[in-house]
Design goal:
heterotrimer, A mainly alpha (655), B mainly alpha (103), C mainly alpha (212), B: 103 residues, mainly alpha, C: 212 residues, Four Helix Bundle (Hemerythrin (Met), subunit A), 6 helices, 75% helix, membrane (chain C)
Amino acid sequence: MFEHIRSFASHFFVTGEPMIYASDVAIVLFLVGIIFTLTYLKKWKWLWREWITTVDHKKIGIMYLISALLMMFRGGVDALLMRTQLALPNQTFLDAEHYNQIFTTHGTIMILFMAMPFLFALFNIAVPLQLGARDVAFPFLNSVSFWLFFFGALLFNLSFVIGGSPDAGWTSYPPLTELGFDKGPGENFYLLGIQISGIGSMATGINFLVTILKMRAPGMTLMRLPLFCWSVVASCIIIIFAFPALTVALALLLIDRVADAHFFTMLHGGNPMMFINLFWIWGHPEVYIVVLPAYGIYSEVVSTFSGKKIFGYKTMVISLMIISVVSYFVWAHHYFTMGASAGVNSFFAVASMLIGIPTGVKVFNWLFTMFRGRIQLKLPMLWTLAFIPCFAMGGATGIMLAVAPADYQYHNSYFLIAHFHQTLIGGVAFGLLAGMYYWWPKMFGFSLNERLGRWAFWFFNIGFYVCFMPQYFLGFMGMTRRVYTYSGDTGWTSFNFISSIGAYLMGIGFLFIVVQVLYSIKYGERDLTGDPWNGRTLEWAIASPAPHYNFAHIPEVTERDAWWDMKARGESLIKVNQRMAFKPIHMPKNSGLPFIMAVFFFISGFGFVFNWYWMAALGLLGVGICMIVRSNNRDSEYYIPAEDVEKTEAALGRV
Amino acid sequence: MNGSTQKHALFPIKNVIGFGLSLLLTFVAIALGVSHALAFGPVMMIIMGLAVLQIIVQLFFFMHFTESDGPAYHIIGLAIGIINTIAIIAGTLWIMTFNSQVH
Amino acid sequence: MSTLNHYKEPEKQSHSTTSELLEYQRHDGPLNILGFWIFLATDLLLFACLFATYLVIRTHVDGGPTDKDLFEIPGFTIETILLLASSFTGSLAVYEMRHNDKKRLLGWLVVTVLLGLGFIGIEVSEFLSYIREGATMQRSAFLSAFFTLVGTHGSHVSLGIIWMISIIRQVAKYGIEPINARKVFIIGLYWHFLDIVWIFIFTVVYMTGVVS
């Protein structure tokens, strides 16, 4: 019996790797620490009532943000391990297998479990407030989305200590990922973790699209919508039309693996390239899903910190919409080297280059917004300024990659690695950080320390160029992606060494952000006005942090930049509070069901990972029961009495 | 659109016509397929056209497609969805015929 | 009264038809209906990917049975007629709901469920007969794609049946009121959508197999 358990455990848990043992200890200590603290402070009920069951978009946003920052830490550690391994030739710090696992988890986590939740954090925090709404269209579904993301990410990360990490790259191409070549459960963790969180992402896309289309404050026509909301519309359109392709690609690969089907196998007529085709039908639009909201953030930030309305609002909207449609016609540029016909490659090359035009329009609009503005170099603005040259360069190398014949030279080399890191870090991560700094006071009621933020900014930025510029050259010198080591006579040593230094500088930058957050929790400047940046949109018209119901009275909008316009007229929501009587406010009730449902999804996913079908079936049954319970629930709303609203507003000093 | 909510006088004429049309379209498709009157290409072209007509029947006779509260955003959404559907299917077929000689 | 969806847009007046309809009367009615239309668009894309996959590997039979060998006209014709009929009865349910006739609404929903069950029954027996002939999902890429595409539609229909039974129970309990009206309308959309998908399975999978 004991032998039996021991043999099971040695397969079930990842063994034989000192670094993983150390992590096991760290994870256990961390969990014990959390459980102890919560029990000691008697916070379990608080955790359940205030956070786990919440349907409040602001709290869900904060939970997304915390998860995203944790995932950024893990993805960043992965990156540093890789750069340590590659700093010098012929290193044995990591072996090939371990290196494969690390680049796989780095890529998957950074895109799907860092960038996506970080964006959803900002969607949740800013969109309803900018619209003058009291919550999103489907608050319950919003909570479901978050918990699906959370448990999807948990399932994926669990592979680190149980079963073994996936090791076929974040793109997970067959036939390598077919059962014949990849027995381990790692690949299953990848397929199911992403699948579960992907359902949540799709729901978020629908949710925010409907919110923006149907829940705008009176007078806020579509052409008065803040640009961040427009960018969310564009991003959601891509989410809802691109994610199904990922769902199908992953599902078919899973069917191949668990049911022995032949979609992408080498035998029995399977076609591995079909997975690659489906994957990129989602995969390329995905980069626009993450970058378009970042454009929206830059637009808000540039306008606010230049003290001017955005230059060329209409062209901004039009270019967002064009990108969201054209992004759908470029996917084949990820596999020009497959050998499709010249017509195919030409079409997708030209379509890819076309995206540069609307993007260029936006860059000029940002520059013209700054022109003759009173620019304040606060942290969000700093990151925005850093974004423009960085992204322009990343875009230019993107055009180089889009030239199909030339791509045969660059394909899967470090040139490509440098390119997409420049667009995804310079475009997306900078934007996410700008957005985090920008809306932080609205989320938490205090600003983040500027001085520490500047240290973080400079370390991260200088580190970025030191890290990635050499990689362009390495690409030209023939270094391909995903190699775990190289010999000294390739001549790649010096560039690799410089690149690794840059990676560590970025790591120090991240540590500064951590210190900055911790320092500011204690010493950060409290935001008592609700409008620390002299903002232009409605989220700055209310207190920081926003009360549960957001707006005691829904504002009337008469202009673009509604709050700026109100200030110009000497109007404010405090005056509205004084003028008008308070009324009861209709709100959705909290619910534990989304959490429970996501737990069942997790159980089901875990069952599929290890081919324990009884467990998978049990999980799905639980999901079904949760849905029926929800469908039959007729008590999901309540009213906040008018007196309570008045009391809350009075406590905030707003009557 | 049957807007009135009170009286029960009317016969659901629209729904019955829709059902009749959908059956008719199906039988025409089957008859065309069975008769071998035309070659594969033209037959497929015609029955794909019939399938598109079936969508229109479902949308307008059964699904109350034109009803909306405020601007008809769902029509725009569905239109983009159909464009993307065509893009996926046509694009995939175009791209993936690269090695059709192999199989 | 102030609600989550506080604001009615000015353009709304031009589409006054919905303002009388029960399913649009609560604040969440229009939101859920628009949200569901958008969900249908995503589901359309899901099927588009499955159709694309099917079309790419339709001829990859690996020496096994082809579509022409397998498909038989009576079977899929009956399935088609059953599903078309259920789509029709589903639309009658909404029609009766809008005429405030609870009994007939329930009746048509039950008929729709029964027709759906009939469809699923025939599909399952069709699948079983293929499997008996050795045409399993594991046999070739073509069969993997066939079973997955048609099976995904079938599982959508099965889910729809369970969902519809839950709604029948709620209508029986609470009668025709705004929440139930919204639910009946939305399941109607879902059901008609599955009919549209089936028409394309009928055309792209079955008719193509028969004609080729």
